[in-house]
């Protein structure tokens, strides 16, 4: 009897001890974080706006946290590939994904891709908020948004390109078109924004719906004309482009955000550490100047706030996509 | 105009810029030569360091890595048949065989010279006619991409030495393997066996490394067991380099291949892989001795290497003039330019002409450094092959494992590498040519997604491929290519049969 | 002499085709308005492989090859393949340093080198060299 007690006592002691040790090891991991290089997964093509902001922030983080932050592009599959890679990474804070609205709320609701964003991820911080815009070539003869709709009414199989099937740009505009009675347009998915822009410039599609920043050089040079932009107010970068609201139309979202996320089980301490580091980085004048140069509209939100946005968006997209089926 | 050119030249030859270009080129060659470490990685590592550098200095270093990386990939491909980068895939058709013949010095020096010629040719094209070339790039829409990819596939008929049927099967296998992953048009999951890591598709570089390097190591082991250790006889010849006559003989070949490389480079999303295969096939068709191709022929190597490096200048055309990157490396460079506050595109040339010309001159300088470094190192590299095979081969295998792991820090990539190694070995044993599979693996997504895009564009009307002039011409060229290759092959077979007949008679 | 190798590889390819079709039938149907869905392209390729494989078998059966191809497998090559996969497992589970040294020693023995001392030295130097280069110069963390 007694020996049994001793055994269980020893066992209990061992359990407590081992959990203490592991808790301590966990705490140590948080305190030491980061003690080796951190990988930032970018779900889109290198060189795109997501890649550039990832690199600008990673440079600041590297400077402030003393470890290298490597940006790795895993593009394709409407962002699902990168999200799955991040989900399956060890939840130790050494693999971080720079994600955005599309891969978070849209892709998993569209197809069974093997992750549920609110359940599998937690957000670290939001970096930026980008409006979308509809553009045509300046020499297309289409002067404003209503003319595009009229053109589409008259011309069968009028095409619009986006950076990928099922991405936000696609859903946003399909949803918009579904509410316009006699306008229909054919969607052409490309592999990334650069390909879509090149197809628009080369007259292979009539219009494209993309993140406004994709158009910047061609907007400045006057080769492309932006017809409408999402968001509550006009963008300071494109002051002459009317918003959908001004034109009297509704869109399901005002733009896409970019933010960092990690697998759900990542320790709170590491998430907060990263969140604060990102906040500090975004406050550095140097970083702000770089983001502005690269035409990235920075806009910080804490991880908790972004988590709330993600779960509400996740639900509303589930509804829209189910009803459209 | 002239003023900008001089300003640009001044920017490019400033000590800091020269130094950056030199270090970049040396780094690029190293990155390229080591399997698994690519120019893409090198530039990505570099970008955070360039935030505070002058644009031309930063870009000089990036161009150095780019140019050096494309070239460096060929070195390991030639010496140990391990392609350092995906761009060196075509090098494998002649390079390793030359080494086996004991001509590694010749192969390396030809590679260096051909690469420099290709690089300089494309740099000049970029400098002189970039805006006009950019128009060509834009005229390529989904139907044209489809046609070009089909053209690329038609090369299979020319690179499957021996059995065309087996070559086609090998290519089909490549096309099939490339469908693993997410559907490029609809985003549906396809043939992944439920393995999440396969959603990305088969990682190309690990597959390439395993397919050629690991399979070759096993074959080499068998050769040693058969007593075919060629190693000993090589010492003296290995360090011999090519003569001026060799270069003169390949004059036309080098320029044709450079032009092909530049042209394919201009078209976004095509890349060096296809360019060198097309150039190789063209060189074979034009050659007086096509039967020597595939046995370690200098002409073939000259074609692949000049085309390879000519892609660099070509790929910069859409990048600088339109802000559209042609491949992964240039996409990263676009990011590098953006963080400098320079937005590539039509305005770059009018707003910052001095920077643009600085970039042009840096590209030329990078190519010159590549020539100097390459020629300097030929003898050193060629000696590498004198290390006993028993030591070299196991180390190559260890490097393959480490290399395929380090591309994405992915354990699954190592498994991919091993699987392809076994596949390559079995195919080699059963007489299926390896290069077609590789080419198909590169081209498969281009073929499929652009076909489907074009069909969406035309409302499912397949005549779109014929009514659009460029796509129609390319498709006709592809047919012409296949027909010519079949005819050549027939002729070759007849010649062999005739030769066999003669010897048979003389025996009797 | 019939080309047994070709017949076997043809049959293997046909097996692959069957397996492939069993996979593609589970893929979703094309979206309304598009003729071509995710399964169209793989199905086309599978069909072509099937035709090619049949051609290969037919050729091997009916056209006698003038050069009989005979494949020799070497037990030592098989050993090497096993060693290679053993190395991979060790690499992935124990890490680079522990796995590479024994692999390099064993592989050199397989390649017919006999001097144990030089083998051990090259194995150690090779491992250390690769490790130092990759982790310090290129900052790639190895397992």
List the helices and strands and how they pair.
The complex is a heterotrimer of chains A (325), B (508) and C (143).
Chain A: H1 2-32, E1 38-42, H2 49-65, E2 69-73, H3 80-87, E3 95-100, H4 101-110, H5 117-120, E4 121-130, E5 132-137, H6 145-154, E6 159-162, H7 168-178, E7 186-189, H8 193-201, E8 207-211, H9 216-220, E9 224-229, H10 244-247, E10 256-263, H11 268-283, H12 285-293, E11 298-302, H13 303-324
Parallel strand pairs in A: 1-2, 1-3, 6-7, 6-8
Antiparallel strand pairs in A: 3-10, 4-10, 4-11, 5-8, 5-9
Chain B: H1 2-13, H2 15-33, H3 39-46, H4 55-80, H5 95-100, H6 104-138, H7 142-154, H8 156-159, H9 164-178, E1 181-182, E2 189-190, H10 204-225, H11 231-238, H12 244-249, H13 251-266, H14 271-286, H15 298-322, H16 328-339, H17 346-351, H18 353-384, H19 389-408, H20 411-429, H21 435-457, H22 464-467, H23 469-507
Antiparallel strand pairs in B: 1-2
Helix pairs in contact in B: 1-18, 2-4, 2-18, 3-4, 3-16, 4-6, 4-15, 4-16, 4-18, 6-13, 6-15, 6-18, 7-21, 7-23, 9-21, 10-19, 10-20, 13-14, 13-15, 14-15, 19-20
Chain C: H1 4-24, H2 40-62, H3 75-94, H4 96-110, H5 116-137
Helix pairs in contact in C: 1-2, 3-4, 4-5
Verbal overview:
The complex is a heterotrimer of chains A (325), B (508) and C (143). Helices cover 48% and strands 20% of the residues of chain A. Chain A has 325 residues and is of the alpha/beta class. Chain A folds into two domains: 36-130 and 256-324, D-Maltodextrin-Binding Protein, domain 2, CATH 3.40.190.150; 138-247, Periplasmic binding protein-like II (D-Maltodextrin-Binding Protein, domain 2). Chain A has a six-stranded mixed sheet, sandwiched between helices. In chain A, β1, α2 (49-65) and β2 (69-73) form a beta-alpha-beta unit. In chain A, α2 (49-65) crosses α11. Chain A is globular, with a radius of gyration of 23 Å. Chain B is an all-alpha fold and 508 residues long. Chain B has one domain. Helices cover 76% and strands 1% of the residues of chain B. Chain B has 23 helices and two strands. Chain B has helices at 2-13, 15-33, 39-46, 55-80, 95-100, 104-138, 142-154, 156-159, 164-178, 204-225, 231-238, 244-249, 251-266, 271-286, 298-322, 328-339, 346-351, 353-384, 389-408, 411-429, 435-457, 464-467, 469-507; strands at 181-182, 189-190. A two-stranded antiparallel ribbon of chain B has the order 1-2. In chain B, β1 (181-182) and β2 (189-190) form a beta hairpin. Chain B starts with a helix and ends with a helix. With 143 residues, chain C is mainly α. Chain C folds into two domains: 4-62; 75-137, no CATH class. Helix content of chain C is 71%, strand content 0%. Chain C has helices spanning 4-24, 40-62, 75-94, 96-110, 116-137. In chain C, α1 (4-24) packs antiparallel against α2. The longest helix of chain C is centred in the middle third of the chain and has 23 residues, at 40-62. Chain C is flat, with a radius of gyration of 24 Å. Chains in contact: A-B, A-C, B-C. The interface between A and C is small, with 4 and 3 residues.
